[in-house]
Amino acid sequence: MTPPGTPGAFTAPAYGDRSLADVVPSVGRALGVALDGHPVGLELPPAPSYVVFLVDGMGAELLARYAHAAPYLSSLLVDGATGTAGVPSTTATSLTSLGTGLPPGTHGLVGFTARIPGTDRLLNHLWWDKGIDPLEWQPHPTALGRLAHAGVHVTSVNKRDFDGTGLTVASQRGATYVGADRVGERIAATVSASAHEPSLTYVYDSDLDWTGHKFGVASTQWLQQLAMVDAEAEQMRDALPSSTRLLVVADHGMVDSPRGSRVDVDETDGLRDGVALIGGEARFRHLYCSAGAVDDVAATWRSVLGDRATVLTREEAISTGWFGAVDPGVLPRLGDVVVACHGDTAVVSTRDFAYEDTLVGLHGSLTPAEMLIPILVG
Fold first, then answer.
1. Consecutive 10-residue runs of the chain (378 residues): their mean pLDDT?
2. pLDDT recorded at residue 264
3. CA neighbours within 13 Å on the CB side: how many for 153?
4. What GO molecular function terms would the record report (predicted)?
5. CATH 3.30.1360.180 spans which residues of the chain?
6. Angle at 87 between CA 81 and CA 91, to 5 degrees
7. Which is it for the CA torsion 87, 91, 93, 95, positive or negative?
8. Is residue 206 classed exposed, middle or buried when 0-12, 13-18 and 19+ CB atoms within 10 A define those classes?
9. pLDDT of residue 39
């Protein structure tokens, strides 16, 4: 179906073909270890070892727009060197799709925040909650773990603070974790891990995303950080043996949302009516409704936002394929109504999410700037 208000500018997730969920299974095939149940979509060149370097926030459109600041990475952005994030296009969702090889509707981390079923509380998937067991919240074996079980040497090189967190356990369990906080540490750890054959080494850099949130993707600070990421990727490539493939990807892109493009639910008549809990994030909201209020909430939000957002009921959103296959246990984590922003619109709540409203760059929706990611083979 064509959901009401869906603009042609939205980019559908390419699950089963060239989405983040297809990257690790495709690397497995390139290493000679196929994972059952994964279709062949993304074809990668065979190699005895792979390094998957994920740059948080480096959308394909941004990389193309600012190619002058990233000459090495942009030189790899040839035709066909793109894929998509899942929905919503946000870090916790994307990292879990990468690590598990599953779409969001199956792995269950369906946004920056999502309702804990049966409660009036939200789970922040980045910071987690000690009362929520990540093995229960995300019970599926990860693709990284399945490759390790099949004999691939799988390593995750990431900041020390992320070791053992709920998100790491949900998305990366089964990989050997190596803490590395600085670029030099990351490169050294990557070179060491990738000396094993066959091997997959996953490396994560969050600094570009942080810079974009704070200063915006049109800022001098963001361009300088992109140049530093480009240098890091090139240095990593130079430090690795020629037989090792470097695969550079991102988890999402980003758009800057100016003050005039923001809708505050706490200052807009009607938007709180019938809504028991607001989750998600500013570019992709999950609305959890009071009993019997779903249709009225959807109608009100469509009327108020107009062409600034696509507003769908849960059933309509699922039928579009936005979340891929949805497990029954994941259903109540999705909003009764979901709101995907167009252009540079953001839906904020200065009461519930005050810090979010201070950010300049945002992501989560289905615009090409947010959804399209580079898949660069070096």
1. 55 96 97 87 95 98 97 92 97 98 98 97 96 97 98 98 97 98 97 98 98 98 98 98 98 98 97 98 98 98 98 98 98 98 97 96 98 98
2. 98
3. 16
4. hydrolase activity
5. 259-360
6. 80
7. positive
8. middle
9. 74
Contact 375, 83 (CB under 8 A): yes
Kindly state the tokens that stand for 7.
């603009």
* pLDDT on residue 8: 55
Residues 20/98, Cβ–Cβ less than 8 Å = yes
CATH 3.40.720.10 domain residues, the chain: 20-256+367-377
Q: Per residue, what are the HEC states of the chain? A: CCCCCCCCCCCCCCCCCCEHHHHHHHHHHHHCCCCCCCCCCCCCCCCCEEEEEEECCCCHHHHHHCHHHCHHHHHCCCCCCEEECCCCCCHHHHHHHHHHCCCHHHHCCCCCEEECCCCCCEEECCCCCCCCCHHHHCCCCCHHHHHHHCCCEEEEEECHHHCCCHHHHHHHCCCEEEECCCHHHHHHHHHHHCCCCCEEEEEEECHHHHHHHHHCCCCHHHHHHHHHHHHHHHHHHHHCCCCEEEEEEECCCCEECCHHHEEECCCCCCCCCCEEEEEEECCEEEEEECCCCHHHHHHHHHHHHHHHEEEEEHHHHHHHCCCCCCCHHHHHHCCCEEEEECCCCEEECCCCCCCHHHCCEECCCCCHHHHEEEEEEC
Question: Is the Cβ–Cβ distance between 184 and 165 less than 8 Å?
Answer: no
Give the pair of three-digit tokens for residue 352: 């519930």
Output the furthest CA–CA distance in the chain (Å, rounded): 61
Cα 120 off chain centre by: 25
Architecture of domain 259-360: 2-Layer Sandwich (3.30)
Question: What is the distance in angstroms between the CA of the first residue and the CA of the last residue of the chain?
Answer: 39
Rounded Cα–Cα distance for residues 282 and 286 (Å)? 10
Q: What is the CATH number of domain 20-256+367-377?
A: 3.40.720.10
